[in-house]
Amino acid sequence: MDQLDHISIQYDGEPYTVPSGRTILTALEEIGLRFVRGIGCRGGVCGACTVFYRVDGEPELHAGLMCQDPVIDGMDIMPLPAFPQKKARYDLELPEGDTADYRVVALYPEVNRCIMCSECVRVCPMGLDVMGYVGMIKRGDLRHAAEASFTCIQCQACALRCPAQISQPNAALAARRFYGRHQAPQAEHLTKSVERTQDEKFQRNMERLRRVDMDALRILYQRQEREPGDAPPGTWLPEDRSML
Amino acid sequence: MAAENPYPLPQNMRRSIRMVENTRQDRVSAIRMGENFPPLSLSDRMAWLEEFHPDYKEEGKRELIIGPNRGELAPNELADLLETWPRSAVTKRRNFKPHIETDVLVIGGGGAGTAAAIAAAEQGANVLIATKLRHGDSNTLMAEGGIQAADQECDSPLHHYIDVMGGGHFTSDPELVEALVMDGPHALRWLEELGVLFDKYPTGRIKVRHGGGTSRKRLHSCGDVTGLEIMRVVQDQAESMDRIKVIDFAPVVEFLTDDAGRLVGAIVERLSPSKKTLIIKAKSVVLATGGSGRLHQQNFPTSNHFGATADGLVLAYRAGMPLQDLQHTQYHPTGIAFPEQKSGLLLTEKFRGLGAQLLNRHGDEFVFGLEPRDVTTAAIIRECVEFNNGVETPNGSMGVWLDIPMIELLHGRGTIEREFPGRFQEFIRKGIDIREVPILAFPTLHYQNGGLTIEPDGGTHMPGLYAAGEVTGGVHGSNRLMGNALLEIIVFGLRAGRSAADFAQKLGEGGAPGLGHLEQFLEELQEAGIPKKNKAPTLLPKYGPKGIQVGVRQNDLDIE
Lengths: 244, 560
What we know:
The structure holds two protein chains of two kinds. Chain A has a five-stranded mixed β-sheet with strand order 2-1-5-3-4, with helices on one face. Chain A has helices at residues 24-30, 100-107, 119-123, 130-139, 142-148, 157-161, 168-183, 188-198, 200-211, 214-223, and strands at 6-11, 14-19, 50-55, 62-65, 75-79. Chain A contains ten helices and five strands; from the N terminus they run ββαβββααααααααα. In chain A, helix 2 packs antiparallel against helix 7, helix 4 (130-139) packs across helix 7 (168-183) and helix 5 crosses helix 7 (168-183). By secondary structure, chain A is an alpha+beta fold. The radius of gyration of chain A is 26 Å and the shape is flat. Among the domains of chain A are: 6-79, Ubiquitin-like (UB roll), CATH 3.10.20; 100-183, Fumarate Reductase Iron-sulfur Protein, Chain B, domain 2, CATH 1.10.1060.10. Chain B has two domains: 11-39 and 333-443, Succinate dehydrogenase/fumarate reductase flavoprotein, catalytic domain (Flavocytochrome C3, Chain A, domain 1, Alpha-Beta Complex); 88-328 and 449-516, FAD/NAD(P)-binding domain (3-Layer(bba) Sandwich). Chain B is an alpha/beta fold. Chain B starts with 10 loop residues before the first helix and ends in an 11-residue tail after the last strand. Chain B contains 17 helices and 21 strands. In chain B, the strands form six sheets. In chain B, strands 3, 4, 7, 8, 9, 10 and 18 form a seven-stranded mixed β-sheet that branches. In chain B, strands 12, 13, 14, 15 and 16 form a five-stranded antiparallel β-sheet that branches. The radius of gyration of chain B is 23 Å and the shape is globular. The interface between A and B is large, with 83 and 90 residues.
């Protein structure tokens, strides 16, 4: 096993000596702390374990995730288990004459108050250009706002620091949903495949296959052709088309 | 963005990486010629599984001694948990006067539960979601790779059906699989209409790829955060609906039934400062508590959410409902083996779908990377344990290389950053550039294939109880294919939600809530001499100075 040095940190106002070389979460757990709140996926995608911290003697305030960020000697950590966010409630239907981009700004008008301090960009644990996507929402460019915010884990670190009181992650979520519903190209090929499942003849074929015994199914399984990995979309067709 | 810190690699790994680099160009050329490592025959698959897959190891499981599955095998950790007493919040309670009444109670706020809530509310039911942690905290949001559905011209639900059955070694329930594949295209459409951003071509056609065990390219994804995108969208939709209420930090610890044996509610503990126990009365219930990876079976690491502790299985088993395929746990072949901080987290199958190969320490391929998951898992363990061809990490564990950099040779520069934005960023921040170096992988506990037996409408053996998602069994048989879990939670979530709302509307209110369903099980516990301190659900695992403590090994007073 690896030999580890021990370092001193503060968590939620209390001092602890923890092993180094660990994430904040595992270091605190190893000395016996048990978390119930402020902990989630333990994989850096849910934003439940967001913390703010300062390292002794340094001016910067950082945001981080306990399950991802390493412990640093002299670190003083504040957990952020819950944050009062602004959450608009809406359905995706657009009233007559309204547009998707306008609707998102109407739901989150605070985006217009952005003072471009870029504090949100500085603290984002995911390294996102938060201020950039807020600007895109403001300008009605939902497509780029959707792309720029796509890996947001909604930890709310940006929202906590925003002097304009924007709930950026939620505004971005609305931007992505309205973009997906009203502006992104729709998957036309899905219509046909949905209709096929409603076709009675096709449903009877399915039922017949479902009744096939396992030995016969094994043969069908082994006989199936495999679509080549590099076949361009929608072009390749199997020799045996009896099941299409 | 370039990596700032050097990848802190021990010497043996650096040496091995050089060998990987030496063989890379030849391997890429072979793929361009249309060659791939020969897939195993069905009989070789079984032989490798039986010898090397953790599911098939005798010492990892035991016979259940009480309950509806008495005499059947289950993993030790799960078996211990199923044969337990209720928590003291249940046993000490005498009064079941409801604090909250609703039409449909949904237990669990992950993908399946949230989809069920939306479907039930759309039928006009008032819905309460009670979830152990926060709404959305679930394995759903951790799913990376994609969602299957037969929507292409060369594909059909019939082919999807055959793939599911074959991938599950012909042990799945045919009727459930039929429901899964026939509802597939509709599930995609439903998600698209809610604003889920699938990866698309400019024409709107959703991009598809192969996954392990698919005959057609049928995996649809949203970057490498498919589950996160689906979860946050359905959650946002549910939270916008007036008929849906959510209580967070509210794990259900026991069912409540009336004299006729119908499910009429549940007892909920609060993981909040109030710590108040709540009685919820409902006309019907949807159980969607998810999986059990946090039991760390056979001490494997896990890719699962912190809350995946089999709570729903415990409640159902105690109430006399049979569980199926319990001995089949899915190990995702490529969990991260190094660096240690990321141990157990996933390197999605999409990497292999785009051509990244699995290599031993000599830089040689030893298995076709897109075998069904259990077969790939067995192959990696075989390569490490039997042939000692794995790469050793500083803490003594083993792994094999996932040669991610070859993806850019196959598909052009920028592919990795574009297709895996989440993982790419995360590794870059750790000073690891996955465009340049392969990553060490080893199987990780990923999914509970079995669970509560259900009907195609989500119904169970108990009137008033419906179930959906990872807590159920039968859809995937003994082995799930990639992309069918995200499909399952939508298809069966919607089905269970609709059925539960129908049931609530048709039958109205049930009788007075009580614990009649526990009588037989409590007697059996007593007779079997199970110690009273063994209590469940355990709600959360405990990681501490003594290592992992889960199931009955932990002291549940800690969170009581």
